[in-house]
Design a protein that fits this description.
Largest sheet: 7 strands, mixed
Order of helices and strands: HEEEHHHEHEHEHEHEHEEHHHEEEHEEEH
Radius of gyration: 22 Å
Structural class: alpha/beta
Low-confidence stretches: none
Strand content: 15-25%
Length: 451
């Protein structure tokens, strides 16, 4: 689709937004939202006709890109047939979505509880774990994000938790492995894995194993930095949880449905959790949908005991029809395999080549279409390009990097001192290379702030 400029409409959209829309995570008078006129595939455009290659996939959810015609048609067909229905009934779109998801989840995660998004999925997974075990505490990692609802934000390990933190009893944070900035003074992945597992076991010992309901981890942390866990870590966590009767929860809200080059990131590590949360890519974000995939043991807990939780729109027919269409499209078009191939042959090599030429790049990490560049002032000391949770003038180097990328038609995903490379899973080779070329220019701006 060719963008058609219409600045008058754009001005009206912007004016109504500024007058009435209250934006998340923002100081309302300090933001200047772009008015978006349309989107298709890996691109979106504004009302001036400027087109952007979206290296954010929205908020890492448009796994099949914008406006895929088969998914749009499925939503339209479902709306004409049965646009909504209460969750207590068996509805074809809901049943089929659950079946298709369960076919792809690892192990015996065969029961699906639907939510409206990832945070609600985490809320319900932790509730299930507490009821299943009869224990109160949930352990989660620093450098994590699990959502913005009450329990989910307290489980989160980044600064968005701070103003929302109620010091809730039952939430305990620990350090997960991250070799580049190792909290364990490790020199290699083996040491990082061993020391991280020992730290977790020590935390469990001092908190009291009999008080801990669950350990929740993002299989590969997303917003916090796309830190792929070292070999053996997740299976080690699984073993620790089994030993103490603790429920193991994997959060695949961002990493799931093809993003890492597998249906789920857990498939890379041959580990099966007791509960797995999902959202975002399950239907490419076309209609809000999330959920919890539940093991047989935990499902049995509620076989004759009512589960005390639910949502008005659980398994909404429009959202489930979009999920059915999205999963079928991913199969038919080989999109999971495409994500793996692009990561292995284009993004991975291309990003590592940029790192060789740009002193601002401290580390490249990722898999599939799920990558992060750690930007630093000094490669030797690994000092971040901007301070932790920087804002205002302290964040100027990252702001300049982002502005340069946007000026050249790339919309980047920036968090603290990192830029994440997370295009749609079906991004083409040409589009990926186009994005890398713009990153090359933007990194030259970042280089100006190195020592």
């Amino acid at each position: 689709m060719t963008p058609q400029p219409n600045p008058q409409v754009g001005a009206a959209v912007k004016a109504a937004d500024r007058a009435h829309v209250f934006h998340s995570w923002s100081a309302q008078e300090l933001i200047d939202p772009l008015a978006v006129a349309g989107a298709e595939g890996s691109y979106f455009w504004d009302y001036d006709g400027k087109r952007y290659l979206d290296f954010t996939s929205g908020l890492v959810f448009t796994n099949i890109g914008y406006q895929h015609p088969k998914v749009v048609a499925a939503i339209q067909e479902q709306a004409a047939t049965l646009s909504t229905f209460a969750p207590a009934f068996a509805v074809e779109a809901r049943s089929e979505a659950a079946r298709l998801i369960a076919e792809r989840t690892p192990g015996d995660l065969d029961k699906i509880f639907f939510t409206n998004g990832g945070a609600e999925a985490v809320e319900n997974a932790t509730r299930m774990a507490r009821l299943h075990t009869g224990r109160p505490k949930i352990l989660s990692a620093y450098r994590s994000y699990h959502g913005a609802t009450s329990t989910a934000i307290n489980l989160t390990g980044d600064p968005r938790r701070w103003p929302n933190d109620i010091g809730a009893a039952g939430v305990v944070h620990f350090w997960a492995p991250f070799l580049y900035r190792s909290p364990f003074h490790a020199e290699n992945e083996r040491q990082e894995c061993e020391r991280a597992l020992q730290h977790l076991e020590d935390t469990i010992a001092f908190e009291g194993p009999g008080t801990i309901a669950a350990v929740i981890l993002e299989t590969i942390p997303g917003t916090a930095g796309i830190m792929t866990p070292p070999p053996g870590y997740l299976t080690g966590v699984r073993e620790i949880c089994d030993r103490y009767g603790i429920v193991f929860v994997l959060d695949e809200v961002m990493a799931g449905f093809g993003r890492t080059g597998k249906w789920f990131a857990a498939d890379h590590y041959e580990v099966t959790p007791d509960l797995m949360t999902f959202a975002k890519g399950v239907n490419s974000g076309y209609v809000p949908l999330g959920g919890v995939a539940i093991s047989s043991a935990i499902a049995e807990t509620f076989a004759r005991r009512p589960y005390p939780g639910g949502l008005t729109y659980s398994g909404h027919p429009l959202a489930c029809a979009a999920a059915v269409a999205t999963i079928n499209v991913m199969e038919e078009e080989g999109i999971v395999e495409q994500a793996a191939r692009i990561g292995e042959t284009v993004l991975g090599p291309g990003l590592r080549e940029l790192a060789e030429r740009h002193p601002s790049v401290g580390e490249v990490r990722g898999t599939g279409v799920f990558w992060a560049l750690e930007l630093v002032k000094d490669r030797e000391t690994r000092e971040p390009l901007v301070p932790y949770n920087a804002a205002g003038t302290d964040n100027a180097p990252m702001a300049a990097f982002g502005a340069t990328a946007k000026a050249h038609g790339l919309w980047p995903f920036i968090n603290m001192n990192r830029t994440h490379v997370v295009p749609p899973c079906n991004v083409t080779e040409a589009e990926a290379k186009e994005g890398l070329a713009v990153l090359d220019m933007a990194l030259s701006i970042a280089d100006e702030h190195t020592v």
